[in-house]
Amino acid sequence: MGLLDVIGPVMIGPSSSHTAGACRIALLARALLEHKPKKANLELHGSFAKTSKGHGTNLALVAGLLAYYPDDERLPKAFDYAQKENLEYAFSIKDLGNVHPNSVKISLENDNEKICLIGSSIGGGNIQIVKVNQFDANFTGSYFSLLVEHEDQTGVIAKIARVLADNYINIATLYSARNKRGGKALMSLEIDKKPDSYILDYISHLPYITWSRMLPEIMTGQNDFK
Amino acid sequence: MTLNELANYNGKASEKIIKEECLSSEETKQLFNNMKQRIVDMRNSIERGLNSKQPSITGMVGWNAQTLWENEDKLASPLLKRVQAYAMAVNEENARMGKIVAAPTAGSAGTLPAALIGLADHLKIRDEELIAPLILAAGIGQIISKTMFIAGSSGGCQAEIGPSAAMAAAAVTELLGGNAKQAVNAAALALSNTIGLVCDPVGGYVEVPCVTRNAFYSIHAISSAQMALAGLESVIPADEVVGAMASVGRLLPPELRETGEGGIADTATARMIVLKMAKKT
User: What CATH fold (topology level) applies to the domain B3-280?
Assistant: First the structure.
């Protein structure tokens, strides 16, 4: 946790874990899609399920899906803005199993794409994404995160690492998981700077790569969403 | 770095925290600028809170800060009154879904700015001098967070108000000229006297007892600083106190960890309030 994460975030109240953290998980879910979501299904687990209304968790989650950051003064009116933006959303309560008490599963779709993730708000507004689609994952939004889905073949991770190294991009953390041997895998890399778009384009055209996405760093500044 | 290593540093504790970050001079400048902006954001939340009586969504809080602020100072103790009012101002602003700085969480957001800025205003200290103590506060929180999740849902209120009071105690100690050892002692004293506090907000809302609790623990932080500056020491070293708090956190049942199902939240009146609110919405 960085010093500015301890004294921070600057945020709309009332709860860093239930409001700001929730907003950030939704921001990352939003970033998994290339374009705006049309439909959202939000399943609340544990403390998120029990005390969500009192903490504005529902508002914060919808705000994040609208690409609002935790300090955005539109957050308390997120439901109204969602209506204006034609975002359909539904909340439900679900036991997501062995995850942190403040967790949510977000499923999003638009005309082209469908994604889901599970994120946990682990305290003070800090978050951790633990699942993306069918894969275990591990990234926090504190860095630019590169997600690459690929066929489970020898050398794919080395290849991605090589491309980043050749472009002087340092890897802070790396997590990889596969659904089964020889099946599909997803790696999440937290990296120290944002790669140029041609690098991402190059990666997406490498052999065995089936999907890739660049997620913004969301803890300090505002980033653009399409 | 552990708290004990920080305590052994020969000089200002904030210097050691900054050293540990391994920043370039440009990045250090940026950190100072960002922390300066945090102070501005904290001040704004205090200002808005002191000037509003607008009730929170639930109607349980919203007027406490201004009421206290405008009341006669019967204790002849302007520091006490100022710090308490500042703390409640921030937390009531938070309860209204206003903009605040989590320090380290939103529920405990009032304690640190109230102690640090409240004291500075009382002693007419300029904001520039608050930046280094604020960085120290962040560093203390950072070290504590390596042992336990700073969240009421993980360790009860002691895991939120405890770190915030410890951070504030260290910051105030440094602001008043304390060295690293004294600052860490202040943190340990503050922390060891918050152990056991449960998170039992009425209806699960960050309002009761959270708003007044921040007023109490901002004063608690200043008391800890006063003792540490006089040379009083925590018999149990700071890192062990953090460990003790974490183990108490693990022992707390879920009912006492921000679920709104135990303690104050489980009283007849609290249940009645929740029922009435459910009918309204």
Answer: 2-methylcitrate dehydratase PrpD (1.10.4100)
Is A39 exposed, middle or buried, given 0-12, 13-18 or 19+ CB atoms closer than 10 A?
middle
Instruction: State the residue for tokens 């056991």.
Output: B196
The one-letter amino acid at A32: L
> Quick check: A4 and B134 CB within 8 A?
no
Any idea what DSSP says for residue A16? Answer: I
CA A125 to chain centre: 14
8 Å CB contact between A123 and A200: no
- Kindly report, residue by residue over A116-173, the tens digit of the pLDDT: 999 999 887 889 999 999 999 999 999 999 999 999 999 999 999 999 999 999 999 9
- The domain A144-215: what is its CATH number? 3.30.70.260
Nearest CA in chain A to B58: A54
- Rank A51-65, A123-137, B61-75, B143-157 by mean pLDDT and report only the highest: B61-75
Out of B17, B34, B206, the one facing A14 most closely (by C-beta) is B206
Question: Which of B99, B112, B164, B202 has the most A C-beta neighbours within 10 Å, making it the best mutation to test the interface with A?
Answer: B99
CB count, 10 Å around CB of B59?
12
Which of B93, B135, B204 lies at the smallest CB-CB distance from A54?
Answer: B204
Cβ–Cβ of A50/B137 closer than 8 Å?
no
Q: How confident is the model at residue A224 (pLDDT cuts 50, 70, 90)?
A: low
A14·B34 Cβ contact <8 A: no
What ipTM was reported for this prediction?
0.95
Domain coordinates in residue numbering, chain A: 3-133, 144-215
Task: Give the model confidence (pLDDT) of B64-91 as tens digits.
Answer: 999 999 999 999 999 999 999 999 999 9
What is the percentage of chain A residues whose pLDDT exceeds 70? Answer: 97
CA distance A75 to A19: 9
For chain B, which residues make up each domain, given as ranges?
Answer: 3-280
Structural domain A3-133, CATH architecture: 2-Layer Sandwich (3.30)
Which of the residues A7, A126, A128, A142 would you substitute to probe the B interface, choosing the one with the greatest number of B C-beta atoms within 10 Å?
A: A7
